[in-house]
## 1
Amino acid sequence: GIPDAYVGAHKYDDPETGLENVGCVYICYMDAKRNGVRDCVRLAAARHANVLDDPYPSLRTNDYFGASLASLGRDGDGHLELLVGASGVDDGGARAGAAFLLTVDTDGSVLKHRKYSAATEPRLALRGGDHFGSSFAAVHAGASILLYGGDDAARNGGRTGAGAVFSVRLDAET
């Protein structure tokens, strides 16, 4: 079926790996009368390591996968595209953050992914402390535009916690 809800649990401790605050995402399906949840699929590093960490390092303690979520709608084959933030990923410096664009089948299984981080997308110019993946908003204007928040004081005149908004175009070429 078609997922009814997506829930990020960025402080999820994975008992299978022993990782703390690694995070996960629940894809939930409601019952026919929409009175309650019929089923949930959990996406976490231990269950989908072949998807989330190939060929990059696997998710680690304090990566906070699921810190934010944004549905980008359906791809050309009708599969859900879900953007998942992992604000604690250390690619590019401590807490630079990352995002994973997941293509999800109707049963909740991940078909493919793309990782956006300092290691995979230098044009993002991510640095330690950016917390990329902590917040997203998707805009659809012929292409997917991602707006994301950051809180690096160095980019805000030294004001701690001042925050900033950045944008990037997500398409087949990026």
Note: Strands lie at 5-9, 24-30, 37-43, 65-74, 80-86, 98-104, 110-117, 136-140, 144-150, 164-170.
## 2
Amino acid sequence: AGTVQDATEKTVSFVNSKSTFGNLLVSKSVTGNLGELDRPFSFNLQMGALEVKTYEFELLNDENEPVETGVMTFDDDYKAAFTLRHGESLKIKGLPNKVTYSLTEKSEEGYVATTSGNENGLIIGLSTPEVVFTNTRETHGTLEIEKSVTGNGGDGSREFNFNLKVQGLADGEY
């Protein structure tokens, strides 16, 4: 507010800006015949420089329904850690426009990890990039067949044929 007196000319300058915020969604999937669906998997999130170090989050179930809400706190290096189980997603809300992020998952022995979405990206206001981490753990057993010939009329030198029928295996070499 100000007053202009007489016929003097005055210039008033101002900047009109709109702040926009974005979100980040991290999802976990576990597959394979030995995948542990209840096991927590550890993640690290590295953000670019943040003015505010606390952000609200929602933990979502496999139907995208919130099951928990809270606050994620970043340390002085703009890092935060969290865990997810199969079917869970973490939505971090209200991140500043044009801030960078980098997501990593701790490697787990016996699992093959794949990712869809951008693990290293940029938050763009009013958007929610999603990164899905999938861990697959498969195992294949072994099969040994041994033939014993017993009795006084058994011929141990004779060739025997065996038929083995196995169901439920994926295509491949075993």
Note: The two ends are 82 Å apart (CA to CA).
## 3
Amino acid sequence: PDMDKVEELIKDENVKGIICVPKYSNPQGISYSEEVVKRFANLSPAAPDFRIFWDNAYVVHHLDFDGKTDEIPSLLNLAKENGINCAVETSLVYFDERIFTKLDLVMADLKIWDDVLHKEYTGVSNEVIIENFRKLDELGIPIIARTPVIPEIEQGIDKISQFLKGLKNVKQYE
């Protein structure tokens, strides 16, 4: 992105955020340079509720161009060094304690309690998701848990709610 333009636009308090895909960004497939990531970490927006949505889907999965993968610096590390609160929205299918321990908030879905139905509708078991909720709780990380309502599917919301009540760091259930 044109960081000079980003830095100019965020002087307006009506600008509330920016969505970034820092690695293999569409449509060109470019990855952000170290300088660009550092400039994002040092932004000083006028809006107190300004958010950077850092959609780093390729942090784990890499595209291989000529035997090389792009490596970008961690905005999370740089933001924490600058005293910026950090949150993530995740499916909790993947868990990396090195990442989660740096977060101030995790938002995650528990869509369906029944594992067979969960696999049928999402393609993955909910067992790892439930276990990762427990891991987050043990680490003391605040959690906003969500169950998106899916019409005509018995999601087991009562069972999900009971499970979440047993976790001490669930701050909100939506």
Note: Helices lie at 3-9, 34-41, 75-81, 97-100, 115-122, 127-139, 157-165.
## 4
Amino acid sequence: GGRLNLYEKAVDSAAPERELLATPDNKIPSALSPDGKWLLFTQSTSRGFDVYMLSRGPGTREVKPLVNAPASPEGQAVVSPDGKWVAYTSAESGRIQVYLRSFPDGGTQRKAGEQLGAEPRWSRKGELFLRGNYATGRTSLFSVSLGKDGAMGKPADEPDTPLTVVVNWKAPID
């Protein structure tokens, strides 16, 4: 098989896709920053999986590493709605957990709690959700509130209110 590279294509156009990045390593896109300036992707390397950022400005295709801890796979990166944080998974502690990193500078890093976790997702209001705690033998949904300064509240384990899943809903949900 061929390599997984990054392309873009307008959904409302018959124009062919446009190559964004082609390298010998496989790449999996994971998120676009709210301002559209950065595409986050996971790239397989000789060391494992790392998270990179690809600039999307006119005439530039700068690639920068965002998370590349030695001997630790990272991935599933998603950008917060305000564009200030990235949540991602990493095994740098020896077990897969969700971390936060300031964005786009990547300078500040925080663990999103002590529970094991994966598949981070942001609500429109900036609350972080993750699936995890495999140590108990069951999958749980956790939520973590994030203050404006990046301070995290204690993860809410097994919320008191039930989670309602809506399928095939046609009206907007706020």
Note: The longest strand covers residues 38-45.
